């Protein structure tokens, strides 16, 4: 049982950055914007937090846990907000192609992260190709004080840093707003038919901007979690891997519902690390690593075949809105 609990625990930790990214993308897509820049925004959110943490850890005589969390958190929010604002300006104001712009933001974000991450490593004149912010990470990884007294099951549920629980709270709140509030109804109306929403007096561009910016900030927090919690404060260039793309895949798996993104992210987290927990010949490991993408394709086929309206993406997803053509 300890082995099972450990696997579940690692799956939750692995799935948490995916949950941030998926929730952010779902909120964005509900407004009709398809943001393929999520992987790059997660990189920018991560490196922005790392920069803030680096300067605090370097200059502080004593690490204060509250400030050690606050500075990287604010830096991550600001960094991911600014890069998402670029995407919004290009796709909403200038009406540039959303697919091309998103891919450009991803390329920019990865390059931005690797450049500044590599620069900080050079500043330290480190003999190893990574940057360690272990003192800051310790503040992010503080778990609930009673977790260690609850056995293996208690550790599986409560033995995480605050950002794991924050990701769940954000997903639940996003789901509630989208389903149960007037704000969510109007946002969904913008994503389904912006012309109709505009005719009803809804400011389409304002909703698109707000949803995309909020979604970008949420996704950026996923990058911060990965570095500061999951990786114990270790930044290495290209260390984030393909998690940003997995987060976008989970949007389809969760059929555009933030609450379903919670179990979906943990399932993908389990599939992502499955090859480390089973014994198979080396030649089969790439096949096992393909499982998250295979599952996504399988779910996409099922959803498309059922043709239920509530399981489909917003009707105007990926389309720029031209008010003069209304």
Specify the overall morphology: globular
What summary fits the major beta sheet?
Answer: 2 strands, antiparallel
Order of secondary-structure elements: HHHHEHHHHHHEHHHH
Number of helices: 14
| Helical residues, percent | over 70%
Radius of gyration: 20 Å
Instruction: Name the poorly predicted regions.
Output: none
Question: What distance separates the N and C termini?
Answer: 60 Å
Instruction: Give the mean pLDDT.
Output: 90
The strands making up the biggest β-sheet line up spatially as 1-2
Q: Could you say which structural class the secondary elements and strand pairing correspond to?
A: mainly alpha
Question: What does this 3D model show about the protein?
Answer:
With 326 residues, the chain is mainly α. It contains 14 helices and two strands; from the N terminus they run H-H-H-H-E-H-H-H-H-H-H-E-H-H-H-H. It has helices at 2-29, 38-59, 65-93, 98-124, 134-140, 151-158, 162-180, 182-192, 194-199, 204-230, 243-253, 258-273, 285-289, 291-306; strands at residues 131-132, 234-235. It has a two-stranded antiparallel sheet. Helix 11 packs parallel to helix 14 (291-306). The radius of gyration is 20 Å and the shape is globular. The relative contact order is 0.21.
């Amino acid at each position: 049982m300890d082995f099972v609990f450990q696997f579940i625990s690692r799956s939750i930790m692995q799935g948490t950055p995916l949950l941030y990214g998926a929730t952010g993308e779902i909120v964005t897509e509900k407004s009709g914007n398809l943001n393929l820049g999520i992987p790059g925004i997660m990189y920018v959110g991560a490196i922005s937090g790392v920069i803030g943490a680096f300067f605090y850890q370097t200059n502080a005589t004593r690490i204060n846990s509250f400030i050690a969390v606050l500075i990287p958190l604010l830096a991550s929010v600001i960094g991911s907000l600014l890069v998402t604002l670029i995407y919004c300006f290009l796709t909403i104001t200038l009406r540039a192609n959303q697919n091309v712009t998103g891919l450009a933001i991803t390329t920019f974000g990865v390059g931005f992260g690797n450049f500044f991450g590599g620069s900080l490593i050079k500043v330290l004149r480190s003999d190893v190709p990574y940057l360690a912010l272990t003192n800051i990470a310790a503040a992010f990884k503080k778990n609930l004080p009673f977790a260690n007294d609850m056995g293996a099951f208690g550790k599986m549920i409560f033995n995480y840093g605050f950002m794991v629980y924050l990701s769940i709270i954000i997903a639940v709140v996003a789901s509630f707003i989208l389903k149960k509030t007037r704000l969510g109804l109007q946002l969904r109306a913008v994503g389904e038919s912006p012309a109709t929403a505009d005719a009803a007096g809804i400011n389409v561009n304002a909703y698109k901007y707000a949803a995309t910016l909020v979604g970008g900030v949420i996704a950026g927090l996923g990058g911060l979690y990965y570095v500061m919690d999951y990786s114990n404060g270790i930044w290495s260039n290209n260390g984030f891997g393909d998690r940003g793309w997995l987060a976008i895949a989970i949007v389809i798996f969760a059929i555009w519902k933030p609450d379903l993104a919670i179990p979906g992210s943990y399932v993908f987290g389990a599939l992502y690390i499955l090859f480390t927990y089973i014994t198979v010949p080396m030649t089969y490991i790439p096949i096992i690593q393909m499982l998250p993408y295979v599952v996504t394709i399988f779910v996409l086929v099922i959803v498309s075949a059922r043709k239920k309206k509530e399981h489909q993406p917003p009707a105007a997803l990926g389309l720029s809105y031209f008010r003069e053509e209304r």
